[in-house]
Records
---
Amino acid sequence: LQGLKIEETMPRYFFALLAAAVALPAAGEPEFTHDIQPLLAAKCGACHSGAKPQAGLAVHTRDELMKGGASGPAIVPGNGASSLIVMRVSGANSARMPPTGDPLTTEQIETLRRWIDGGAKVAAAAAQYPAASLSLAAPELPQAPALWSLNPIDRIVYAYFERWKTELPAVVSDAQFARRVYLDLWGLSPAPGELTAFLATAADGKRTALVERLLADNQLYGQHWISFWNDLLRNDEGVIYHGGRASITKWLLNALESNKRYDAFVSELLNPTADGGAEGFLAGVNWRGDVSASQTPPMQAAMNSAQVFLGANLKCAACHDSFVSRWKLRQTYGLASFFSEGPMKLVRCDVELEERAEPRFLFPELGEVAIDATLAERRQAAARMFTAPENGRFARTVMNRLWKQLLGRGIVEPVDDMDAEPWSRELLDWLAADFVQNGYDLKRTMRLIATSRAYQLPADAGVDAPYRFRGPRVRRLSAEQFVDGISQVTGEWRVLIPRTAGAGSYAREWRFKSSPLTRALGRPIRDQVYTERETKATTLQALEMVNGRELSRMLWRGARKMLGQLPAAPAPLMDSGNLGGGALRALARKPLGGARRLHLLIEDMESYDPKRVVAGWADAYLYRADGSRVALATLAADRKFTVGSIQTRDEPAEVMMAGFPSQLVFDLEDKGFIEFEAKAAVQAQPSAVGILPNLRFFVFTEEPVPDSLVAVTGEPPVAAPARARTTSELIDGIWMRAYGRRPSVQEVAAAERIAGRPVSAAGLEDLLWSVFLSAEYQFIP
Amino acid sequence: MNELFHKLDRRHFLKASASATLAAVASGEARLLAQSKPKATADTVILLWMAGGMAQTETFDPKRYTPFEPGIESKAVLSTFPQIDTAVDNIKLTAGLERIARVMDRGALVRSHRVGDLGFILHARHQYHWHTGYTPPQTVAAPHIGAMIARTLGPKNPDMPAFIDVGQNLEIGAESDSLKAFHTAGFLGTEYGPFFIPRSSDAMTAVQPPPHMNDARFRARYANYRALMEASPVAREGSDYQRESLRRSIENAHRLLNSPAAKAFDLSLESKETVDEYNTGQFGLGCLLARRLAEAGARFVEVTTEYIPFRFWDTHESGHQRAAAMKETIDRPIARLILDLEERGLLDRTLVVMASEFGRDAMIEGKPDRTVKDQVDVPERMTEIKHYGMHRHFTEAGSVLLFGGGIKKGFLYGETAPERPCRIVKEPVTIEDLHATIFQAMGIAADTSYLVEKRPFYVTKDGKGVPVVELFA
């Protein structure tokens, strides 16, 4: 069956397209959505839009132009020169439009004329799908040959291929499938042992079994998918805007690990219970100071929830009726009113209107709420309407997002405009109906998709416009996958030091603040909702990889870890735990154990304003065997420090200070000290000023390793590779983990040359660099 | 041409690029909408950013001078520096800016810059507003003006990043994320974002091999990389276009690091005399770096006095002494930068702009007619020297310098009242209009727009910025 050519038949769908005058313009020919609409919105939209457009003419859609206004139709398709709109903007025989501001340029008028001459076409991608009924009905599944009938998705895709006379490609190899599905469900590459076992088995249904096994590991699944949801829900750790932003990480991780029903998941975000941990989504990102009416917290809640959960872009309609979609200002305020403490008045482009907003859902057929309902009742009503089984758009939107995550391109694009035409209505509706019928189970859909032949097809290079499904798009590793993958190969993971004292733990990249490297690789800063990551290869990104400090540090440590040459991080002699403003904590006298050096560190644990923290060491004494003691402040350190008085909560303290954060090293060699004691002191903060110190004091007797100051408990996210006994084992391990295959003979030779004989740490660093910069590592074909 | 490019089938690559462009358009990538194109008078912008709020009455807009005496009334104090003459008769500055005073005949001073009034003052938010032209929060990520210029004009020298940002560390505690929010190309894509040089004294490290790696190893590493890729049996991973653009990006990075342009980052190539002249600290060296980058063909360079809450231009307590110290930081390097650019024949096509997120006043927080929550207590009488100076944030008026790039010489524009609240009395210039002026000089119309999520996003807010034509020669 594979490679089957379908007989040439004109798809019925094609006629439907023609009938709606929705044909593909030839290359270079102007097209409405990209060339004309933005121009008209910019030049004419201010007057010719809204409930009462000037002269009755609105200019947002081709239909509106056809309908025209008081003077008749604005366009005559096929005849640009005699179209009213062309005459008016060129000022041919009446006053020129627009009456104020710059007129259209000659090129712009020419573009408009050519567009009309060419039949006033709208590209297929811009065709709208509002025709879809809001409620869902699973379409009947078409028949398909045996191989394509096991999974309902495949029956639809088979019929689609048949309709478009697409050649049926073979599915990808087991190895390629394994890498793809591990990265998609866990965000990690398969461990070599697991991959080998998977390849070796000949069991029927082994791919399905693998998908099920991966989905069953709640923890690894959650640790990968949380980045996707963090982007969508603009959640991040350690990220502050004045006005605050509450993290929902704990709630979100739990929701993913427990595979919370998606209707309940969204209900909790839209109608959060106090202390439930999900309150942060509605709170939004708020900066101190005045905020435009379109950006108040309830308006942010309306825009974000509509975008994320319903694929409706209300951003334009938060200020005025949208020029590019069907959404109106009143609708945005209607939705915002579900989340607003008090009543809201409509504000159009910063001018308050004499119209009070009433809580009204975007799709009124889903119900209503009393105008005097309490905030709690309104939120509850919003949660109900968003997640109602009759709200097919809710299910379609998330199905489309999952499809895009797993196959690289949505069934509808852009994914935030669910009014756009899907490449297969049947597929989208079937997935959504199945999802609703089976308890809004996200993992069920992922299992369906990942076990389909459609998912297992060879990657499509993505050359069509308009889009035709041929298989998944080639995808690029996310920033988190890129970094975690390096740790997987080297066994060296970053350590997360908790903000609230305690031991450190190994953690995957998503747990840390974004860095120049991860930002260059597309991790957003999440001050907006992000539903799509940037995946372009750019020079600035390459510079981060070629000479950036972070990657080079990761490789420096990673290579030494692999060779067993990474010095173990010493444990601190003393650790104050986390201290706030005004603290004075005694660190009990401890034997020095013959130490030759004393390292005194004061570390920042994310103080609100670290540059204004004042802290130091008080009552620091070294003891000799005879019981006599010497004040540490009388000794010289490796750098200058000052001695001064600071005010702690209860008393003033004389402290040694060297700025903040700081490190002082004292040479104790041959001085006969056997014990040390000290106090950690932090300046009490003046009440009015937000410094919020959060510090931790450490004393080490050996050179401390930055990032590894505290003891680490727990295991790394995946088991570290065993130390390779031979060079070829080492190279094999790298290739298996990074690429999911063994190296070729030529590659082994090249790799050995790079790594050195015997392997040197520097050589291995360079080899790892080459591997991680390769397209084979960075892309998921 | 290196061997990589020889190996590439050009026709194949063009085909792949074309399809990628189509894909990009289909995916809604920001796209330039056709607009008129004014005649450019500059090819390069150097923005000297006075982060933290530069007190205008202590710098470029002198008012009545009141020397310190214990017990003076706070509200009587307008300037804590006497005024000085400049090379231009009708332009006076404050003491401490003698060198800039001597080059005032090369540029224009705007005393009527009116920034946004965003309510409760927040530095990072006003900086965001100034740098993007839009008030946060926004529904799409707004690009930095440097990114807009980089996107619209591209690099001037292809080996030089089009947008270079010098002097700001993004991890400063509480306001870090607010800073990151505008140090970005936003929806235009990271490609047009800033190339960061957080410390100008370490600029060379940005174009050098990583630490612990010498040049020989760095070169060998790249050669080995290519050899290893040649040895790969997996000929086709990723689409042709993606693979090629990844290879090309890595190639570009190496080309930049090995190009003559990279030498522009190396301040050690300057004479000791020159370095000493500029070296008033990181900002001063940043000005020297900006000159070198402009010589090597940079498109947009921002050099900032670092923003750290309560440091540098964020003068609260001891405002007078701190303003004096800041003037010492900027006076010599800015003046020397102008003279150096002139001497090299670059000033005519290089627009140098100096601005700040707002001005300062001893008494008023926010705007005269709409004061906001005081953030600093000011005593009625100044009993100690630490009370002496401009402690509060003033959004009504600030000063801006413009040199070169087609700007009038020895020209004064705008005026503020001689007495508190020292309002703008003539020729106000908003952020939109100042940006429109910068864009105009670069040959970019103020209503140039990019398509994002199907709607136009303009380089000046709503496309409404109006260039200040009086500023052009």
---
Amino acid sequence: MEEVIPFHRSLAAQRGRLNAKFAAARHAHPALDPAVVLEHLGAVVGPIVSAVAAIRPAAADATLDALFDLSLELMGEGVLGRPATGDRGRCNDCEVGLRRPDPADEKPVLSRAKDRLRDGCSGFEPPSLEARRAAVAEVWGTLLPALPAHIAAEPRRVAGSLTNALYNLASTPGARPAVWLATMRTVGPDCPDVAALLKLGQVAAWLAGLAHYRAAALALCRELAPDLACGALGISTDDQGPTTDEASLDVILDRLAADPWLLPQAAALARPAGTPALKLATRAGAFRGFGGVFLAPPTVTWADGQFYVRDGDAWWLLSADLFGATLLRADAPIKPASRAPDAPFRVSQAAEIVCGPHRAAFPELIAVSSWAADAKTLVVTSPLSHAVYLFAVMSERVCCG
Amino acid sequence: MPITDIFRHISQAPTNPAAKAAPRAFDVADLYRGPASDLEPVEAAAGPLDEKLRQAYFWIVNSAIISPHYDIEYNESAPAASFTFGDTKAKVSLPSGQSYSSYVLLPLLNFALRRRCLLVGGPGRGKTSIAILMGILAGYSLREVRRGMQHGQPQMTVADLFGNPLPADLVNAQRMEDVRVAWRSWLAMRVKIIDEYNRIPTRTQSALLTVMADNYAEMFDQVIELPEAAWYLTANDDAGGGTYQVIEALRDRIDVVVRALAFNNRFLGDLLYRIEEGIKPEEVVPAGIIFTEAEIERMHREILAVTLAPELRRRVEFFAGQFEFLEGAAEQLDYRTKDTAKLAGADVHLLLAGETGKDRLKDLGQQTRNGLSVRSLMTVLLFAKAVAYLRGTRAVALEDLRQIIPFVLHDKLAPDPDAPFFEAPGNAIYRVDRIGWIRKLFDLSCAEYDRLNLDRDDPVAALGDEFARGLEGLGEAEVRARLVKIERLLADWSRGRKLYGPLVDDILKLKYLHQRYTNYLRWLTWKK
């Protein structure tokens, strides 16, 4: 005989209401399969409710109620629950699926960034619905049970926000949902409250490739407790140099704000490690037919401290740093310029990039249609490519495949 | 979104979309926006609440109250198409703008404005259901709303309504103020529901009036101050079919009257589904459309901030000015009102019929037995702002006024069924159709306003604006010139013009301006 656990008691207590809610949801979404919902309840919601009941029994009923509503909503939208086909999907970075997390995902951020650099991943494959569904399942299956205190405090807000976050990451070409998930699993439980957890999620999203969150995420790091911020950034407390005291964290964040191509751990060191060299940092964008955003080879310009890319009439805002590059649709810039006044980069007649004492030639520069630069980044486009190429002076070896 | 959810789903924002440029800025909070909705704690929502109000509206019409009517019609330009049916030429227009069901819209606006709404209609039409939903929107549980609902019945006493003195105090108290009262909990609620209010005895109605009008209750010298609340009263038959006649003052406190619309039998399948599945919409109201006290307060402030252009205000003035004037009621123009006749016990219809020289069909004042009170005019302005707010605009449009006026004036304007207007071909229907009649009145008033070209040529408005700029530093010569201007205008009008209500308002306004300038001139002369 199956043991009666708090989840079962909550189910029994709210049976009538939950049944009515399911009937109402099924009226709107006839495809909702009772068997799938029951399976989801038992296999996914049950463990979360039990985890909550273990630390705060009084919150079990409210948690079940909120997660049940959210489950029906997400299943109705087709982003949660057993997929229609046997294919479990593959995320754009092959990192999130209905598989157990790879131990590599638990690596500190420095290692992950190095891996990324070493692997030379461009990451602009199109995200699929299955990948998003798999990402959402991963949140419910592995992340939510690890955060019972936060779920107990605000079940709908926490579960819904984390679901949306991973869904958005899985929808963004080039982003790495597994990195975000790993950070949240390792650092999330240490957050003292829901507000801190959600701030951590925003910082982690930047580190997982949503480069347009960079400025806001760095500001949020200053609002988080130093150990949480260092945990998110992958700066361990026993590293050499400044670590977790608040003043040191401020210095690290200042350095990171000044250089988008600086690793957090390198920023924590008193002296820069390695020899700086001019590198192809990353590339962004692809032909729309292959899941990218551009219909034609783009051109780039600089305005208001940001890079803008256009293909014909459409404009995109390009945000890029060591952790990723994103393209967001934007209005046309008002005063476009070729480069920022303090940009040290030049593209010479001999197809060479010159940046102060650094000088290098790259195969991507054989044909240049446009280029723009700010103090730290040079963006180059080619009439032969639907991608934009980003060059920077970096300390680490960069290989962009 | 794959399918429109019927019961749990809130319509996705924006519910009244308008063309917008692609935004350049992005927000890190976007990370948490996605397929899962309604995640932010309600306290954190800082934007305008009109979107939430619209979501509540659409949830109610789509999921809770089966009211597939769009009787409050809005058109972006011309209606998409119009058709007429039958020998009576029943006209059906397909609106090109977002249109609404009055049966849901008006209770919701009443909720946002915290006013007093009367729901009338036959039994089983959903009057109580919509009132209960409003209680749940205010954050109360279904049990609290049901317990707080007062059911009118012929034996209802003041104590039933307000509470009872504590028995121990009744025995031991030496003075009246020592008797403590156990107030009924419904009094403190922000949504108050009185079911079948016309079955309440007259004395208890008077006690109810103090609560509705002044937001306090009194028993045994004990007074309890009550919060601002949205009131919902229901009546099966408001035309005298209740057990007791509703006292005039209580009726006058009702701001808006909503009539339950007939059930469309094509939607019987929806009812069947609810029966079979045991679904009660009031039990599954989405959390995302529930308003906190602070939100209701903020929404009220936002509604008050909706603007009403002077041009539209003038049209309301012109419309309202049609009704109070009664030429045969007194000698002095100021007293020539229907109120004068009513206070004297005279028959307004007879006095109206006795007038001569005016076109009795054209004179809109001939159609009513009374004029408009200040309270009803304030309610018109408030509800017009509220409907504009719900539609997502921040300025009242003429159509907002046109749509809202019939519901606010439903019980305020008493028609004179023997007026010539109702005898005219095709107008007999307006004796029964109060909403259609009042809307027709407004349309006729606007047509007359346009005919008189008052948008462009309104000398009284010009003189009023001139006066509104102030008297500070105004010289004697200028004052005399303005006085002459006023006198010339009055002299001009006195030559052969028939006296209609709006003209009387204009004449009295000119008299007011003349008196203010005269007093100022006297002061100037004295100062010299």
